[in-house]
Amino acid sequence: MQSPNEISARRRSRVEKTMLVASSVFLVVAACAGLLAPMLSPHSPAGLEEARILEGPSWSHWMGTDGLGRDLLTRILYGARVSLTVGIGTGVIALVVGSLYGLVSGYIGGALDNLLMRIVDVFYGLPDLLIFILLSLVFGRNIGGVLVALGLVTWVRFARIARGQVLQAREFLYIEGARAIGASRFRIILRHILPNVAGPILVTLTFSIPAAILAESTLSFIGLGINDPYNPWGTSWGTLAQDGWRAMRTYPHIILFPGLAIFLTILSFNFLGNGLRDILDPKGR
Amino acid sequence: MVRFLLKRLLHALVVLWVVATLTFVLLRITPGGPFDRERRLPPEVLANIAAKYHLDEPLWGQYARYLKGIARGDLGPSYKYLDRSVRDIVADTLPVSATLGLLALGLALALSFPAGLTAAYYQSSWTDRLCLFVATLGISLPSFILGALLIWIFSLQLGWLQAGRWGEMGSAVLPSFTLGAAPAAYLTYLLRSSLLDTLGEDFIRTARAKGLRESRVLFKHALSHSLIPVLTVFGPLTAALLTGSFVVEYVFAIPGMGRFFITAVTDRDYPLIMGVTLVYTALLVSANLVVDLLYSFFDPRIRTR
User: Fold this and answer.
1) At what angle do helices B257-267 and B86-121 cross, to 10 degrees?
2) pLDDT (tens digit, 9 = 90+) per residue, A2-41?
3) Which residue in the set B156, B247, B277 is minimally distant from A130, CB to CB?
4) Interchain CB distance below 8 Å, A126 and B15
5) 188-227 of A, contacting B, C-beta below 8 A
6) Rg of the Cα atoms in chain A
7) What was the ipTM of the complex prediction?
């Protein structure tokens, strides 16, 4: 006999699994569509069609055209490259920098750990969106600048998580064993501690990616993010949404589609993160 | 307690100093300047401008002047608004942003408490799943998209509420909702998981075994215990409301500090950028300080860390 609670928990996990699969599929499709954009679309992202300005969705232009007669679907496909690269790139940069920092700090401990963590504390107290805006002023309003700037405000999350995990892992017997047989500090950190702290770091990564996409698209929307119309990597979904915002009163489709793309991508990453957390950390359920 | 207080206060000051220095350095190394025009100004004019704003002094001198000004509460002149100082602009716009932030916070609390309580109490029920699903949607929906959507539905299609025209009746409804939606979702999540932890504790079973009414168990015993972890997010929550207000003020054309910050960045009005950044940081730092104090009050173990 199953109690009603167990049945509903089971049904619940089935719904969650479906969402997890649907999110993964969506993200893979979005990434592939971005990668294969030149092959998928018959239009060019810069191809102006004067006769077809601001058209609604039709068979030849599935998502309609923008104010210069460019095919919106094509622009969104090219934008997917930019937005996803910003998200994943930021996550990876922050992961590498932050985890190494946290690993070293936690493993060495003592005064150095204290100092390094004070620095992290200060970073945590900063209003990161503002700092991000100032940094992107310095590094330029292109994808490279945004990547560096976002990486610089995101890495501290990983540093804290990695350090906390190391402090836990350090107490395990097998670390002591490794040290006893003469493994170097470097080897212990990389071979013995890192694999054990990978789970929570992976979950943090999955949540940093949508956060980065959100930050970038928000900034591009208010006109302080990526905007370089002559560069194929110079238009993100946020930039497209800003284009649409100006014309929303009469041509809502121009903001609808980029907005949907951003929303669905962030949503999928969040579902993915929740799913991963449940799998990797059963206690946190 | 005094030691703890002093330590947190020192930390807050360090953060402020770091932000002041960081903005100063960043804006000095940024390519391009506030007085670049399409047509180059004559060198005499540029020299006059530089002398007026002390830009001809060595960098150390400028930095010292800037820090001294901050200590006195003087944030310098605005490059763009010639008749107003940065302090005037902050004094005019901060109340607007604060009103918006408080409305959004109130809304977030009003939405998240019933939702979190219901979700946790009826764990795994349809209500719980619905709450979680809506919360995930709320976290994933960027405020500029939500704002645009609300304007499109309620202003452009239905014509019920005006977008823009801050200060008129009803003009705050859509912006507060836009700003409060994501915090409401976070709080719901957090309250739910905190309550779930608490409801499994022994003292709840004891309370029930004593024959207390369920409402008393839930509101008196469980809720007060679950609020401590929720308290910690008020720091990040303030940050979210502050930075979120940027976008919302932009979308709804509200004359708050965030909108001035955005125009200051496009205008390269450096003193205004630095001033607003500092004010934001000060607000954030004080919020964190208050949270730390409350937290150490409710959970004395934290002070010894």
Assistant:
1) 130
2) 444 444 455 557 777 888 888 899 999 888 888 887 777 7
3) B277
4) yes
5) 210, 214, 217-218, 221-224
6) 23
7) 0.83
